[in-house]
């Protein structure tokens, strides 16, 4: 499986000599939008930590459950999905607009390959809106300014940070960046956030992550449960609170394997 050549005008912006997390994730999910360098890095990481492929797949099912909850139970009709990654099945707008075609979704990413594919593949309903913004989580003001062109920021918005905050360290102010995004959203908005932690595997995962961070271009920080929970300071967590990915409102599938993994999720309402 090999990614198609980048479109004209994008080729000089896509570095195929360094693995990129979005392309590695796509590889683990069985997609086709990755290069040799991504497959090599992905295989090295999964050999050291085989559960990463399982977590990647769990995360896709989680996004669908979270979005469906936000539309059908929380009444949210607007989504700001930051660090969206490469398109796959049941993307945020697809789940939201199936539940209510009038939902509005803004995707944000800083990888030109992601944005190229998003513009080509993520087409929303005529009743709603779907837009794409090139920006970095480290620039919340730019994200909010761009999102305001599509979203009504006087009405509740669900901020989706799904597997992305680990790429911003505590030293870079990850918690403050998330708080600044939430500060720009009105009461009744939600934060939906999952990310990698190390609560199950222990030393083997720490070693795999350290090896990757030393070798590759985009380092990732594994937080403790306490540092993960700090992202929800001042917000009202919905049931079941902060939990391992498979345990957040699981589908009623008696054959589903529910076991704790090294990834936590929380969904919380802004009072």
Question: Can you summarize this structure?
Answer:
The chain is of the alpha/beta class.
End-to-end distance:
46 Å
Strand content of the residues, in percent?
5-15%
The topology string of helices and strands comes to: HHHEHEHEHEHEHHEEE
Q: So how many helices?
A: 9
| Main structural class | alpha/beta
Largest sheet: 8 strands, mixed
Please tell me how large the radius of gyration is. Answer: 18 Å
Overall pLDDT: 84
By DSSP, the count of extended strands is 8
Percent range for helical residues?
A: 25-40%
The residue ranges in which pLDDT falls below 50 over 5 or more consecutive positions are: 1-12
Using the alpha-carbon principal axes, give the shape: globular
Describe, in plain words, how this protein is organized in 3D.
- The protein is an alpha/beta fold and 271 residues long.
- The chain has helices at residues 21-28, 36-48, 51-72, 92-99, 112-121, 140-147, 174-183, 203-215, 225-229; strands at residues 78-82, 104-109, 129-134, 158-162, 190-196, 236-237, 243-244, 263-269.
- Helix 1 (21-28) crosses helix 2 and helix 6 runs parallel beside helix 7 (174-183).
- The longest helix has 22 residues, at 51-72.
- The protein is globular, with a radius of gyration of 18 Å.
- The chain starts with 20 loop residues before the first helix and ends with a strand.
